[in-house]
Design a protein that fits this description.
With about 400 residues, the protein is an alpha/beta fold. It is built from 15 helices and 13 strands. Helices cover about 40% and strands about 15% of the residues. The strands form two sheets. The chain has a seven-stranded parallel β-sheet with strand order 3-2-1-4-5-6-7, with helices on both faces. Strands 10-9-8-11-12-13 form a six-stranded parallel β-sheet, sandwiched between helices.
Length: about 400
Amino acid sequence: MAREMAISVYLFVFRVLFLLFKLCPQKKKTVGVASFGDNIFYATRAIHTQSSQEIIILKDPSCRFKFDASIGTILSFSIKHPFSFLKSIYHLATATTVLVDTYYGFLAVCHFRPGTKCIQLWHAAGALKQFGLLDPTIPTRSKKANNRFQAVYDRFDYTVVGSDKMAEVFKQSFGLTDDRILKTGVPRTDFFFDHDRHEQIYEKMKNKFPIIKEKKVLLYAPTYRNNQLSRFQLELDLKKLYEAFSDEYVLFIKLHPAVSCSLTDDYKGFVYDVSRNKINELLLVTDTLISDYSSISFEFSLLEKPMIFYAYDLEKYKQESGLIQHFEETMPGPVVFTTDELIEVIQFHSFDRNQVKHFAAEWNTFSIGNSSMALARFVTNTEETTEERGKIHV
Protein backbone atom coordinates (compact mmCIF):
# COMPACT_ATOMS: atom_id res chain seq x y z
CA MET A 1 0.00 0.00 0.00
CA ALA A 2 2.76 2.44 0.97
CA ARG A 3 4.67 1.62 -2.24
CA GLU A 4 1.60 2.27 -4.39
CA MET A 5 1.06 5.58 -2.60
CA ALA A 6 4.67 6.62 -3.26
CA ILE A 7 4.34 5.69 -6.94
CA SER A 8 1.10 7.68 -7.23
CA VAL A 9 2.69 10.79 -5.72
CA TYR A 10 5.76 10.47 -7.97
CA LEU A 11 3.65 10.09 -11.10
CA PHE A 12 1.39 12.99 -10.14
CA VAL A 13 4.38 15.32 -9.77
CA PHE A 14 5.91 13.97 -12.99
CA ARG A 15 2.65 14.55 -14.90
CA VAL A 16 2.31 18.16 -13.68
CA LEU A 17 5.90 19.00 -14.65
CA PHE A 18 5.58 17.23 -18.00
CA LEU A 19 2.41 19.19 -18.85
CA LEU A 20 4.10 22.47 -17.91
CA PHE A 21 7.11 21.72 -20.09
CA LYS A 22 4.87 20.74 -23.00
CA LEU A 23 4.00 24.41 -23.23
CA CYS A 24 7.56 24.99 -24.45
CA PRO A 25 8.31 24.74 -28.20
CA GLN A 26 9.07 21.27 -29.54
CA LYS A 27 12.61 20.79 -30.89
CA LYS A 28 14.09 18.36 -33.36
CA LYS A 29 15.88 16.07 -30.92
CA THR A 30 16.19 12.47 -29.79
CA VAL A 31 16.03 11.66 -26.08
CA GLY A 32 17.25 8.23 -24.98
CA VAL A 33 16.33 6.93 -21.53
CA ALA A 34 18.90 4.33 -20.54
CA SER A 35 18.88 1.62 -17.89
CA PHE A 36 20.92 -0.99 -19.75
CA GLY A 37 22.52 1.48 -22.12
CA ASP A 38 24.01 -0.45 -25.03
CA ASN A 39 20.99 -0.31 -27.36
CA ILE A 40 20.57 3.39 -26.59
CA PHE A 41 24.27 3.95 -27.29
CA TYR A 42 24.33 2.19 -30.66
CA ALA A 43 21.08 3.84 -31.76
CA THR A 44 22.02 7.40 -30.78
CA ARG A 45 25.50 7.05 -32.22
CA ALA A 46 24.01 6.11 -35.59
CA ILE A 47 21.44 8.94 -35.40
CA HIS A 48 24.29 11.34 -34.65
CA THR A 49 25.95 10.41 -37.98
CA GLN A 50 22.75 11.00 -39.94
CA SER A 51 21.40 14.20 -38.43
CA SER A 52 22.45 17.40 -36.74
CA GLN A 53 19.54 17.13 -34.31
CA GLU A 54 20.21 17.39 -30.59
CA ILE A 55 20.72 14.13 -28.69
CA ILE A 56 20.10 13.81 -24.96
CA ILE A 57 20.89 10.71 -22.91
CA LEU A 58 19.02 10.34 -19.61
CA LYS A 59 20.86 7.85 -17.42
CA ASP A 60 18.75 5.95 -14.92
CA PRO A 61 20.58 5.38 -11.60
CA SER A 62 20.90 1.68 -12.48
CA CYS A 63 22.71 2.39 -15.77
CA ARG A 64 26.42 1.55 -15.71
CA PHE A 65 27.06 2.03 -19.40
CA LYS A 66 29.70 4.66 -20.19
CA PHE A 67 28.35 6.91 -22.91
CA ASP A 68 30.53 8.91 -25.26
CA ALA A 69 29.82 12.55 -24.46
CA SER A 70 30.65 13.52 -28.06
CA ILE A 71 27.32 12.01 -29.14
CA GLY A 72 25.20 14.34 -27.03
CA THR A 73 24.31 15.70 -23.61
CA ILE A 74 24.25 13.19 -20.75
CA LEU A 75 22.00 13.84 -17.74
CA SER A 76 21.29 11.99 -14.53
CA PHE A 77 17.66 10.88 -14.58
CA SER A 78 17.22 10.69 -10.83
CA ILE A 79 15.11 12.60 -8.34
CA LYS A 80 18.24 12.69 -6.15
CA HIS A 81 19.60 15.24 -8.62
CA PRO A 82 16.63 17.67 -8.81
CA PHE A 83 17.98 20.15 -11.37
CA SER A 84 19.09 17.40 -13.75
CA PHE A 85 15.77 15.61 -13.18
CA LEU A 86 13.79 18.72 -14.12
CA LYS A 87 15.88 19.18 -17.27
CA SER A 88 15.23 15.52 -18.13
CA ILE A 89 11.45 15.98 -17.96
CA TYR A 90 11.78 19.14 -20.08
CA HIS A 91 13.66 17.21 -22.78
CA LEU A 92 11.09 14.40 -22.75
CA ALA A 93 8.25 16.91 -23.14
CA THR A 94 9.88 18.73 -26.07
CA ALA A 95 11.47 15.83 -28.01
CA THR A 96 10.54 14.53 -31.44
CA THR A 97 11.89 11.01 -30.69
CA VAL A 98 12.05 9.20 -27.36
CA LEU A 99 14.03 5.96 -27.11
CA VAL A 100 13.64 3.66 -24.09
CA ASP A 101 15.27 0.33 -23.30
CA THR A 102 13.00 -1.16 -20.63
CA TYR A 103 9.74 -0.59 -18.74
CA TYR A 104 9.54 2.95 -17.32
CA GLY A 105 6.58 3.78 -15.10
CA PHE A 106 6.76 7.51 -15.86
CA LEU A 107 5.56 6.78 -19.42
CA ALA A 108 2.09 6.09 -18.00
CA VAL A 109 1.61 9.84 -17.52
CA CYS A 110 3.54 11.10 -20.56
CA HIS A 111 1.10 12.00 -23.30
CA PHE A 112 3.55 12.97 -26.00
CA ARG A 113 2.78 15.44 -28.76
CA PRO A 114 1.27 14.00 -31.97
CA GLY A 115 4.59 14.47 -33.78
CA THR A 116 6.66 12.58 -31.20
CA LYS A 117 7.67 8.94 -31.70
CA CYS A 118 8.31 6.78 -28.62
CA ILE A 119 10.37 3.72 -29.58
CA GLN A 120 10.98 0.77 -27.28
CA LEU A 121 14.41 -0.76 -27.98
CA TRP A 122 14.22 -3.23 -25.06
CA HIS A 123 17.38 -4.82 -23.66
CA ALA A 124 17.34 -8.33 -25.10
CA ALA A 125 17.32 -9.89 -28.56
CA GLY A 126 15.03 -12.70 -27.46
CA ALA A 127 12.86 -13.80 -24.58
CA LEU A 128 13.04 -16.76 -22.23
CA LYS A 129 11.21 -15.17 -19.31
CA GLN A 130 7.61 -14.01 -19.31
CA PHE A 131 7.07 -10.28 -18.90
CA GLY A 132 4.51 -7.57 -19.48
CA LEU A 133 0.99 -8.90 -19.81
CA LEU A 134 2.33 -12.46 -19.47
CA ASP A 135 4.14 -11.81 -16.17
CA PRO A 136 3.03 -14.48 -13.68
CA THR A 137 2.62 -11.83 -10.95
CA ILE A 138 -0.11 -9.97 -12.87
CA PRO A 139 -3.03 -11.75 -11.12
CA THR A 140 -1.66 -10.80 -7.68
CA ARG A 141 -1.23 -7.09 -8.48
CA SER A 142 -3.85 -4.41 -7.95
CA LYS A 143 -6.10 -3.24 -10.76
CA LYS A 144 -4.52 0.20 -10.48
CA ALA A 145 -1.04 -1.25 -10.99
CA ASN A 146 -2.12 -3.34 -13.98
CA ASN A 147 -3.81 -0.31 -15.56
CA ARG A 148 -0.56 1.61 -15.12
CA PHE A 149 1.40 -1.16 -16.84
CA GLN A 150 -0.96 -1.12 -19.80
CA ALA A 151 -0.73 2.67 -20.01
CA VAL A 152 3.05 2.33 -20.34
CA TYR A 153 2.76 -0.29 -23.10
CA ASP A 154 0.25 1.89 -24.93
CA ARG A 155 2.86 4.65 -25.06
CA PHE A 156 5.15 2.64 -27.37
CA ASP A 157 4.56 3.86 -30.92
CA TYR A 158 7.06 1.27 -32.13
CA THR A 159 9.01 -1.62 -30.64
CA VAL A 160 12.24 -2.76 -32.28
CA VAL A 161 12.67 -6.49 -32.98
CA GLY A 162 15.37 -8.73 -34.38
CA SER A 163 13.00 -11.46 -35.60
CA ASP A 164 9.39 -12.35 -36.29
CA LYS A 165 9.64 -14.68 -33.32
CA MET A 166 10.41 -11.78 -30.97
CA ALA A 167 7.69 -9.71 -32.63
CA GLU A 168 5.14 -12.33 -31.54
CA VAL A 169 6.49 -12.18 -27.99
CA PHE A 170 6.10 -8.40 -27.88
CA LYS A 171 2.63 -8.50 -29.38
CA GLN A 172 1.50 -10.79 -26.59
CA SER A 173 3.52 -9.16 -23.81
CA PHE A 174 2.69 -5.53 -24.61
CA GLY A 175 -0.56 -5.92 -26.52
CA LEU A 176 0.98 -4.54 -29.73
CA THR A 177 -0.32 -4.69 -33.28
CA ASP A 178 1.76 -5.40 -36.40
CA ASP A 179 1.95 -1.72 -37.36
CA ARG A 180 3.79 -0.97 -34.10
CA ILE A 181 6.58 -3.49 -34.78
CA LEU A 182 9.83 -2.12 -36.23
CA LYS A 183 11.89 -4.82 -37.97
CA THR A 184 15.24 -3.02 -38.05
CA GLY A 185 17.11 -5.56 -35.94
CA VAL A 186 18.55 -4.98 -32.47
CA PRO A 187 21.15 -2.16 -32.41
CA ARG A 188 23.49 -3.78 -29.88
CA THR A 189 23.95 -6.87 -32.08
CA ASP A 190 25.92 -4.79 -34.60
CA PHE A 191 28.89 -5.37 -32.33
CA PHE A 192 29.02 -9.04 -33.33
CA PHE A 193 29.55 -8.15 -36.99
CA ASP A 194 32.30 -5.58 -36.43
CA HIS A 195 35.27 -7.87 -37.06
CA ASP A 196 37.89 -5.11 -37.08
CA ARG A 197 36.83 -4.13 -33.59
CA HIS A 198 36.91 -7.77 -32.54
CA GLU A 199 40.64 -7.93 -33.21
CA GLN A 200 41.23 -4.87 -31.04
CA ILE A 201 39.20 -6.36 -28.22
CA TYR A 202 40.97 -9.72 -28.42
CA GLU A 203 44.29 -7.96 -27.91
CA LYS A 204 42.90 -5.82 -25.10
CA MET A 205 41.50 -8.84 -23.26
CA LYS A 206 44.69 -10.86 -23.71
CA ASN A 207 46.66 -8.03 -22.15
CA LYS A 208 44.20 -7.82 -19.29
CA PHE A 209 43.99 -11.59 -18.76
CA PRO A 210 47.24 -13.11 -20.11
CA ILE A 211 46.10 -16.57 -18.97
CA ILE A 212 43.65 -16.78 -21.90
CA LYS A 213 46.61 -17.01 -24.29
CA GLU A 214 47.24 -20.47 -22.82
CA LYS A 215 43.85 -21.72 -21.68
CA LYS A 216 40.26 -21.81 -22.91
CA VAL A 217 37.56 -19.74 -21.25
CA LEU A 218 34.42 -20.94 -19.51
CA LEU A 219 32.15 -17.96 -18.82
CA TYR A 220 29.45 -18.35 -16.17
CA ALA A 221 26.89 -15.54 -16.50
CA PRO A 222 23.73 -16.27 -14.49
CA THR A 223 20.63 -14.11 -14.63
CA TYR A 224 19.19 -12.18 -11.70
CA ARG A 225 16.87 -13.99 -9.32
CA ASN A 226 14.38 -12.48 -6.91
CA ASN A 227 15.75 -11.68 -3.43
CA GLN A 228 19.38 -12.16 -4.52
CA LEU A 229 20.30 -8.77 -3.13
CA SER A 230 19.83 -10.04 0.41
CA ARG A 231 20.96 -13.66 0.11
CA PHE A 232 23.06 -14.32 -2.97
CA GLN A 233 24.83 -17.65 -3.14
CA LEU A 234 26.89 -19.02 -6.00
CA GLU A 235 25.34 -22.37 -6.90
CA LEU A 236 28.47 -23.90 -8.40
CA ASP A 237 30.89 -26.35 -6.83
CA LEU A 238 34.09 -24.49 -7.63
CA LYS A 239 36.26 -27.19 -6.12
CA LYS A 240 34.91 -29.85 -8.49
CA LEU A 241 35.28 -27.53 -11.48
CA TYR A 242 38.84 -26.68 -10.47
CA GLU A 243 39.81 -30.34 -10.14
CA ALA A 244 38.25 -31.19 -13.49
CA PHE A 245 39.36 -28.27 -15.66
CA SER A 246 42.12 -26.13 -14.15
CA ASP A 247 44.74 -27.60 -16.50
CA GLU A 248 42.81 -26.66 -19.65
CA TYR A 249 40.38 -23.87 -18.75
CA VAL A 250 39.84 -20.73 -16.70
CA LEU A 251 36.46 -19.94 -15.22
CA PHE A 252 35.24 -16.36 -15.67
CA ILE A 253 32.25 -15.40 -13.52
CA LYS A 254 30.12 -12.41 -14.45
CA LEU A 255 27.34 -11.69 -12.01
CA HIS A 256 24.25 -9.61 -12.73
CA PRO A 257 24.90 -5.85 -12.18
CA ALA A 258 22.39 -5.83 -9.30
CA VAL A 259 24.25 -8.57 -7.43
CA SER A 260 27.55 -8.53 -5.57
CA CYS A 261 29.47 -11.46 -4.16
CA SER A 262 32.97 -12.01 -2.83
CA LEU A 263 34.43 -15.04 -4.55
CA THR A 264 36.85 -17.30 -2.73
CA ASP A 265 40.59 -16.91 -3.29
CA ASP A 266 41.11 -20.66 -3.06
CA TYR A 267 41.29 -21.10 -6.84
CA LYS A 268 43.59 -18.34 -8.02
CA GLY A 269 44.60 -18.74 -11.63
CA PHE A 270 41.35 -20.57 -12.36
CA VAL A 271 38.43 -18.47 -11.04
CA TYR A 272 38.18 -14.82 -12.08
CA ASP A 273 35.48 -12.35 -11.09
CA VAL A 274 34.88 -10.40 -14.32
CA SER A 275 31.63 -8.73 -13.25
CA ARG A 276 32.99 -5.24 -13.99
CA ASN A 277 33.92 -6.13 -17.57
CA LYS A 278 31.69 -5.47 -20.58
CA ILE A 279 29.68 -8.54 -21.44
CA ASN A 280 30.22 -8.34 -25.22
CA GLU A 281 33.98 -8.20 -24.77
CA LEU A 282 33.81 -11.25 -22.52
CA LEU A 283 31.70 -13.14 -25.03
CA LEU A 284 34.33 -12.65 -27.73
CA VAL A 285 37.01 -14.47 -25.72
CA THR A 286 34.64 -17.12 -24.35
CA ASP A 287 34.95 -20.68 -25.63
CA THR A 288 31.93 -22.07 -23.78
CA LEU A 289 29.13 -20.06 -22.19
CA ILE A 290 27.39 -21.32 -19.06
CA SER A 291 24.17 -19.44 -18.50
CA ASP A 292 20.61 -20.21 -17.43
CA TYR A 293 17.55 -18.08 -18.24
CA SER A 294 19.47 -15.01 -19.35
CA SER A 295 18.86 -13.42 -22.75
CA ILE A 296 22.61 -13.43 -23.31
CA SER A 297 22.24 -16.69 -25.25
CA PHE A 298 20.52 -14.89 -28.14
CA GLU A 299 23.48 -12.62 -28.83
CA PHE A 300 26.09 -15.30 -28.08
CA SER A 301 24.50 -17.59 -30.65
CA LEU A 302 25.70 -15.17 -33.36
CA LEU A 303 29.25 -16.34 -32.55
CA GLU A 304 28.19 -19.97 -33.09
CA LYS A 305 29.98 -21.20 -29.98
CA PRO A 306 28.88 -23.87 -27.45
CA MET A 307 26.42 -23.05 -24.68
CA ILE A 308 25.31 -24.90 -21.56
CA PHE A 309 22.24 -23.99 -19.53
CA TYR A 310 22.77 -24.55 -15.81
CA ALA A 311 19.17 -24.59 -14.59
CA TYR A 312 19.62 -25.85 -11.03
CA ASP A 313 16.37 -24.16 -9.91
CA LEU A 314 14.27 -24.70 -13.03
CA GLU A 315 10.94 -25.62 -11.45
CA LYS A 316 11.15 -22.87 -8.83
CA TYR A 317 12.09 -20.29 -11.45
CA LYS A 318 9.19 -21.33 -13.68
CA GLN A 319 6.75 -20.68 -10.84
CA GLU A 320 8.25 -17.42 -9.58
CA SER A 321 9.44 -15.69 -12.73
CA GLY A 322 7.81 -17.53 -15.59
CA LEU A 323 9.61 -19.17 -18.53
CA ILE A 324 8.77 -19.90 -22.13
CA GLN A 325 7.12 -23.23 -22.78
CA HIS A 326 9.38 -26.18 -23.57
CA PHE A 327 12.48 -24.42 -22.22
CA GLU A 328 14.60 -27.57 -22.18
CA GLU A 329 13.77 -28.45 -25.79
CA THR A 330 14.18 -24.88 -27.05
CA MET A 331 17.65 -24.03 -25.78
CA PRO A 332 20.57 -24.46 -28.22
CA GLY A 333 22.64 -26.55 -25.85
CA PRO A 334 22.45 -29.07 -23.02
CA VAL A 335 20.33 -28.18 -19.98
CA VAL A 336 21.95 -29.46 -16.76
CA PHE A 337 20.95 -29.30 -13.11
CA THR A 338 24.10 -30.11 -11.10
CA THR A 339 27.81 -29.31 -11.21
CA ASP A 340 28.53 -32.98 -11.94
CA GLU A 341 26.28 -32.89 -15.04
CA LEU A 342 27.94 -29.65 -16.12
CA ILE A 343 31.39 -31.23 -15.87
CA GLU A 344 30.30 -34.28 -17.85
CA VAL A 345 28.88 -32.18 -20.70
CA ILE A 346 32.11 -30.16 -21.00
CA GLN A 347 34.33 -33.23 -20.80
CA PHE A 348 32.45 -35.08 -23.54
CA HIS A 349 31.91 -31.98 -25.72
CA SER A 350 28.17 -32.66 -25.92
CA PHE A 351 27.37 -29.78 -28.26
CA ASP A 352 25.56 -29.42 -31.57
CA ARG A 353 26.76 -26.37 -33.50
CA ASN A 354 23.98 -26.75 -36.08
CA GLN A 355 21.51 -26.34 -33.24
CA VAL A 356 23.20 -23.06 -32.27
CA LYS A 357 23.16 -21.82 -35.88
CA HIS A 358 19.44 -22.58 -36.19
CA PHE A 359 18.73 -20.77 -32.92
CA ALA A 360 20.72 -17.72 -34.09
CA ALA A 361 18.92 -17.58 -37.43
CA GLU A 362 15.51 -17.95 -35.78
CA TRP A 363 15.97 -15.12 -33.25
CA ASN A 364 18.29 -12.74 -35.16
CA THR A 365 16.67 -12.69 -38.60
CA PHE A 366 16.85 -8.90 -38.98
CA SER A 367 19.99 -8.37 -36.90
CA ILE A 368 22.61 -8.64 -39.62
CA GLY A 369 25.08 -5.90 -38.72
CA ASN A 370 23.25 -2.77 -39.87
CA SER A 371 20.50 -2.54 -37.24
CA SER A 372 21.65 0.76 -35.71
CA MET A 373 21.79 2.46 -39.09
CA ALA A 374 18.43 1.04 -40.14
CA LEU A 375 16.86 2.49 -36.99
CA ALA A 376 18.66 5.81 -37.51
CA ARG A 377 17.30 5.97 -41.05
CA PHE A 378 13.80 5.46 -39.70
CA VAL A 379 14.18 8.12 -37.00
CA THR A 380 15.73 10.72 -39.31
CA ASN A 381 13.61 9.79 -42.32
CA THR A 382 16.63 9.39 -44.58
CA GLU A 383 17.49 6.70 -47.12
CA GLU A 384 20.63 4.73 -47.82
CA THR A 385 22.87 5.99 -50.55
CA THR A 386 23.69 3.70 -53.47
CA GLU A 387 27.20 3.26 -52.04
CA GLU A 388 25.89 2.27 -48.61
CA ARG A 389 23.18 -0.10 -49.83
CA GLY A 390 24.10 -3.72 -49.29
CA LYS A 391 26.92 -2.95 -46.89
CA ILE A 392 27.01 -3.84 -43.22
CA HIS A 393 27.00 -0.81 -40.93
CA VAL A 394 28.69 -1.19 -37.57
